[in-house]
Design goal:
Layout lengths: L4 H14 L5 H11 L2 H11 L12 E4 L2 E6 L2 E6 L2 E7 L2 E11 L6 H33 L13 H6 L10 E7 L22 H10 L6 E4 L13 H9 L4 H10 L8 H11 L2 H18 L6 H54 L3 H43 L7 H9 L3 H13 L3 H8 L7
Parallel strand pairs: 5-6, 6-7
Antiparallel strand pairs: 1-4, 2-3, 4-5
Helix pairs in contact: 2-9, 7-9, 9-10, 10-11, 11-12, 12-14
């Protein structure tokens, strides 16, 4: 069957409408996670209504996120992320739509406006169909509840919408998960150029044009996670701290709010952050422990293991850096060895030139012995230098968690040649809470500026 032009248009527009959002595993994971009505209600109440329980989870029902309009030879389709309708006493009274974004969409106000307009258009078409059905039943005398004149005036009869008909409000929440700040417009006015107009015309047009602002939740800048009542709160807060291991560590140490998160929340957090620690610890170890100890086990011990795993990852990075430094030092040693070999060859030639076989042999033996001793000494010095430098870097890495390290303090640590002293300083740096406290306890006096 030949594909109709309008069908191709619908497919293309559906594809275009998805660009700029979240795609792949993250998008599927978020939609699945937020289909839970308690979480969906909590997202709106915490992210929009400052913790007031406006949206009731028990009154929510999921609806199709596809918005379609087809009339004659024209067709339009938009694909949203998630839509739910709230019912009360069997009656619908609001449509709540959700759009997840990971990248900035510079057409977002218009995109949301079109999707909401299509939903209003769908409601109107439903109203017209119902009115026509009831009008036909009234004409046939099959509707005992029909009023004497179903359509009260020509306008109602012509457009099939009566004065008693009402639309349900449609509201869209844009949740932004990106790491970079949102650079796009947050209202229709920000997409319109008023620069070439005089002030009077600009003010007049702005009054005529609806501003159409976005209802926007930027997860990376949100600061009132106490508004949330479900596991969505700690999930969003941990996600916000995803790029700072120190912030995550302090969050875990500050309280136990994160312990209310279930396996589904940890699984989504893995997908959103790509954390290897979470993937390894919370998916594998927690499953093993639940099999051994039952479903009621708390997540506290698993969280401790995550912190340990994060520390191990950091140790691996330090080890890799140390290996690079050792490789560089080894290259220097090999260069020294090559120089020694060249010196040996030159000594042998000089011995041969003295024309005495015994002297030649003796010179060679002496040169070999000297070379061996020098190589051993260089290797020992290089090894000690690598160890001292690596230990000092460990001290710096620990202290940098608390702020910049003064160059004076850095030079004093690098100048230390006693390995045991540096090891003691490394242990001390892991316990202190500031660079100044470390300098004081280590006995490193810095000049006060």
């Amino acid at each position: 069957m030949t594909e109709q032009p309008e069908t191709r248009i619908c497919s293309l527009e559906a594809q275009i409408s998805c660009e700029g959002g979240m795609v792949g595993k993250k998008d599927i994971g978020l939609k699945t996670y937020l289909r839970d009505t308690a979480r969906y209600a909590d997202l709106w109440n915490g992210g929009v209504f400052q913790g007031r329980q406006i949206v009731k989870a028990e009154e929510l029902r999921e609806a199709s996120p596809v918005h379609v309009r087809s009339e004659h030879d024209e067709a339009m389709e938009r694909q949203g992320d998630l839509v739910m309708k709230q019912y009360c006493n069997g009656q619908r009274f609001v449509v709540l739509a959700l759009e997840n974004q990971e990248k900035t969409d510079y057409a977002m106000p218009v995109r949301v406006m079109i999707q909401e307009a299509l939903e209003y258009d769908r409601q109107l078409r439903e109203i017209r169909r119902e009115n026509e059905r009831r009008y036909k039943a009234y004409q046939e005398g099959n509707d005992s509840t029909a009023c004497r004149e179903f359509y009260q005036d020509e306008g109602e009869f012509l457009y099939k919408v009566r004065s008693a008909d009402w639309l349900l409000p449609v509201v869209t929440l844009v949740v932004y998960w990106g790491e970079q700040p949102w650079k796009g417009p947050k209202s229709l006015h920000e997409m319109i150029c008023f620069d070439d107009m005089n002030t009077e015309m600009e003010q007049a047009l702005k009054k005529l044009l609806p501003e159409y602002p976005l209802h926007f939740l930027d997860v990376s800048s949100f600061c009132h996670f106490e508004y949330f009542r479900t596991e969505l709160g700690p999930l969003l807060e941990i996600f916000q701290k995803r790029n700072s291991r120190e912030s995550v560590r302090r969050y875990f140490e500050a309280g136990d709010w994160h312990r209310q998160m279930d396996d589904e929340s940890w699984s989504l957090l893995e997908q959103l952050t790509g954390s290897k620690s979470l993937e390894k610890q919370f998916r594998q170890r927690s499953e093993r422990k639940r099999e051994e100890k039952g479903e009621e086990e708390e997540m506290g011990c698993v969280i401790d293991e995550v912190l340990e795993e994060m520390a191990e990852e950091r140790a691996v990075i330090m080890a890799e850096e140390r290996a690079v430094a050792m490789a560089e030092e080894r290259a220097a040693i090999m260069a020294e060895e090559r120089a020694v070999v060249m010196a040996e060859e030159r000594a042998a030639i000089m011995a041969e030139e003295r024309a005495v076989v015994m002297a030649e042999e003796r010179a060679v033996i002496m040169a070999e012995k000297m070379a061996e001793e020098r190589v051993a000494k260089l290797a020992e010095e290089a090894g000690m230098k690598i160890t001292l430098t690596a230990t000092a870097e460990c001290v710096f890495n620990l202290l940098e968690e608390y702020g910049p390290i003064p160059s004076e303090l850095r030079n004093m640590v690098l100048a230390q040649k006693e390995l045991q002293t540096l090891k003691n300083w490394q242990k001390l740096a892991a316990r202190v809470r500031s660079v100044e406290e470390f300098a004081q306890l280590a006995g490193l006096q810095m000049q006060r500026g």
